[in-house]
Specification:
Strand content: under 5%
Shape: globular
Largest sheet: none
Radius of gyration: 23 Å
Number of strands: 0
Structural class: mainly alpha
Helix content: 55-70%
Length: 272
């Protein structure tokens, strides 16, 4: 009897890859309970033999709760806005016929190739003219028109049968009710995947938030943690404690939306 080695080899490779991806998170969690000398010791201490809460005590001497609140407002606002705007735009580009539709969609696809740094100067100038520097609207609104979100929702909206839309219109369904009662439920898997992408992107958007914010009270959690780094010394334990706290919301969002995320990634693959 021959032993099929392919599944065994595949499982071993997957297990090794999983360990490699999990190890940085493990190192952050354990490092948060190490004093400075142990955190930078060579050879490293793989598990804290004398764990301490000193790093968390030092961390919470700063306005961490305010930074966390700001991060939730910014990431949550971006998530809601991107899902709403992208679903509307994706539906229109996929199911409505109007002059220039192909050109408009091509512009969104082309915009995906532009790095964020290219538009940062004109964006900053525009936000300054609006008086939105160091405000929530300045942090949230520029990210709502995310080209990737519109592209993703447009591709999924194309899988909706046009006959279903026509039947709803024949029954007297208005355009607004058609969108919220029929289109949105069918797009939920895609919206779940987009919600995860958007929340993580908004939570970790260090560069744009650094340019737009000015005051300590408006800093997000990644920005606030970065300010804890000293000029001559780096408190690795405190930084790891902050990174461990910052990772909790992202993990929570993924766990809550993982079913929709998986459906969103696989829906297009099974389309005949």
């Amino acid at each position: 009897m021959k032993l099929n080695r392919s599944p065994i080899i595949s499982n071993v490779v997957v297990a090794i890859c999983a360990l490699l991806f999990i190890f940085p998170f493990y190192w952050i969690i354990t490092g948060a309970f190490k004093v400075q000398d142990v955190a930078v010791a060579i050879p490293p201490e793989w598990f804290p033999l004398d764990p301490t809460l000193e790093n968390f005590e030092t961390l919470f001497k700063n306005p961490v709760w305010r930074w966390t609140f700001n991060s939730f407002i910014v990431a949550g606002g971006e998530m809601f806005g991107v899902c709403l705007v992208s679903s509307l735009a994706g539906y229109v580009l996929a199911k409505k016929s109007f002059p220039g539709r192909v050109i408009v969609f091509s512009m969104f696809v082309a915009a995906m190739a532009l790095p964020k740094q290219v538009i940062l100067v004109p964006l900053f100038t525009m936000l300054a003219d609006f008086g939105w520097i160091d405000t929530y609207q300045g942090l949230i609104l520029p990210a709502i028109g995310w080209p990737f979100g519109i592209f993703l929702m447009k591709q999924f909206a194309q899988t909706i049968p046009s006959e279903l839309i026509e039947a709803a219109k024949i029954d007297g369904c208005t355009e607004l009710r058609l969108f919220y009662s029929i289109i949105v439920p069918l797009l939920k898997p895609a919206m779940g995947a987009l919600a995860i992408f958007t929340f993580i992107n908004g939570w970790n958007d260090y560069f744009s938030q650094l340019i737009i914010t000015r005051s300590t009270s408006m800093m997000t959690l990644p920005l606030g943690i970065a300010t804890l780094k000293g000029e001559y010394t780096t408190p690795y334990g405190v930084l790891m404690a902050g990174a461990a706290i910052a990772s909790i919301p992202m993990i929570t969002i993924f766990v809550l939306f993982q079913k929709a995320f998986t459906q969103g990634l696989t829906m297009g693959a099974v389309k005949g």
